[in-house]
Amino acid sequence: MQPAYSDKRIILHKSHLIEPIIRHRIQDSIFYKQHLYLTNEATILPVITQNIHYIAGTDSVGRPSPYLCCLLRLLELEPSEEILDIYIDQLGYNEFKYLTAIIIHYMRLVFPSGYVYNKLDSYYEDFRKLRVKLKSPEFDSKKMPINFKLTYMDQWVDNLLSQERVVDIILPRMISRQLLIQKGEVQPRKYYVEAEESEADEESDYQSDSD
């Protein structure tokens, strides 16, 4: 008989969603102690917008990135849904794309499957560029190191919904979308291929935090 699955999200402290060895490395890091210790829901915002310029987990020697440090601090703070909506909407301006990316990641970790699908589906229409730092550099044909790769917000959302581990963090299991559709809790996923192609044909002058 297969044992019942225990949902990781049903825990007293959300910070424990990050594995202990990574959590302790974050709390011992200089960045966490200097920028995040004693921050609250308001004071963490400038830390995120001013210091996160790429998505990353730990590097090849186990040092946590600013992104990972801020994610842990958000899990420690456990902001309310109203505050998270303000973070992610940014008063309609959507200027800080890495703030959006980290809040989406937080929601994927904390909230139940139906809420996650309904909230994240709208970001399949978001094609802003994101930089992802590689754990170890890759080398091109000229033997030059490549430390970053490019992704997009819609791909980031797809990774969060489809992969078991993202930036060294194990994600809680998701209930099948098809099952939730049958229950009437979520809508079938929409595909925005035509919209993406038309966006690619038109060059936009808009830039947001370090495009």
Give descriptors for this structure.
alpha+beta, two-stranded antiparallel ribbon, 4 strands, two-stranded antiparallel sheet, 211 residues, disordered N terminus, 44% helix
Helix content percent band: 40-55%
| Main pleated sheet | 2 strands, antiparallel
Number of helices: 10
**How are helices and strands ordered from N to C?**
HHHHHHHEEHEEHH
Distance between the termini: 52 Å
| Rg result | 18 Å
Number of strands: 4
Describe the structure.
The protein is α+β, with helices and mostly antiparallel strands. The chain has one domain. The chain has helices at 20-27, 30-36, 44-51, 66-77, 81-89, 97-110, 113-120, 153-162, 177-183, 193-201; strands at 129-139, 145-152, 165-166, 169-170. The strands form two sheets. It has a two-stranded antiparallel ribbon with strand order 1-2. The protein has a two-stranded antiparallel sheet with strand order 3-4. A hairpin with a 2-residue loop joins strand 3 and strand 4 (169-170). Helix 4 (66-77) crosses helix 6. The longest helix is centred in the middle third of the chain and has 14 residues, at 97-110. It starts with 19 loop residues before the first helix and ends in a 10-residue tail after the last helix. Mean pLDDT is 87; it is low at 1-5.
